Amino acid sequence: MPWNFDPGRPIYSQLLEMIRLQIVSGRYAPGEKLPSVRDLASEAAVNPNTMQRALTELERTGLIYAQRTSGRYVTEDSALIASAKRTIAREKTGVFLQEMKQLGYGPEQVTEIINTIDSSENADQDVSDLDAEKK
Amino acid sequence: MTPVFECSHITKHYGAKAALSDINLTLEPGRIVGLLGPNGSGKTTLIKLAAGLLTPTSGTLTICGETIGPLTKSKVSYLPDKDYLSGWMSVSQVIDLFHDFYENFDRNKAYEMLNRLQIDPGQKLKTLSKGNREKVILILTMSRSADLYLLDEPIGGVDPAARDYILQTILTNYNENGTILISTHLISDVERILDEAVFLKNGTVSIHSAVDDIRNQYQKSVDELFREVFAC
Question: CA 20 to 30 Å from B178, out of A29, A59, A123, B167?
């Protein structure tokens, strides 16, 4: 299944975010070898040069590294992965809080709403989301 | 690196009508380039010039550094905008014809793609649907190992599911140092596989840029930009 992209942003930066998400969510484990550029490009149904660019940019963050002859691997530095995960969470929460602000809710009220949502139901949701991601 | 395709100050007149005026365009090896423009903007004329079917009124055009001639025709694999194969031939007969005609034609590759698109090689071309005939022609074009692939409206009659598959086929089968120039109106379908987009407007190049640069600069997809630039 080809991956989906937002129209208004460069494809390579969206590819970068998607692969980064797969790393921090554990679909690609620390130290795991990534598929080749061609295979990833084919999976996402994008131009291999675009995929190449996304991976090169991702290398700069340190989340993946290139082994001269054998391909690209996910970093074994789990602290780095954890911090990348936290950065994403902060960004997404920022966007969410912005939307809530438009609805007229401040951070305290949002916290209150979060607490009223059944936490067990929420946890189930998370697990099924992750499963869907893996498929 | 020598550009695969280079034209400088190309002008083409049909009688008094200028189809192309003062076109300068350079394409590097290993790129997939979209040739985009409204009807009558000169896309097919430019492609026919590169294929050697037309000669420019003025200006020069080279393929891999060579002027257009018999030698460049062996480097160019061209898919015309019209159906040009004889209907009485079967798919396998056309494959034999291509195999005899072009040194760089890979027969196994052609059969492999036919198989994956579930087209029976024994079928006569005239009994195939429009979409399936287009698939056969695309398979013939992509089975050659060329430096430049010229695809003029390749997927117009193909259903959306097969279109995705065909784009995959283009991605996985083109020769890595080859360049593909693809003219199409189905921009949103092909945008993700393009490196660069060339906008033709009334016979001149109005934009030539990397797809991601366009998305970055205009904050919109190439498809959206096209609709804006060429709004009626």
Answer: A59
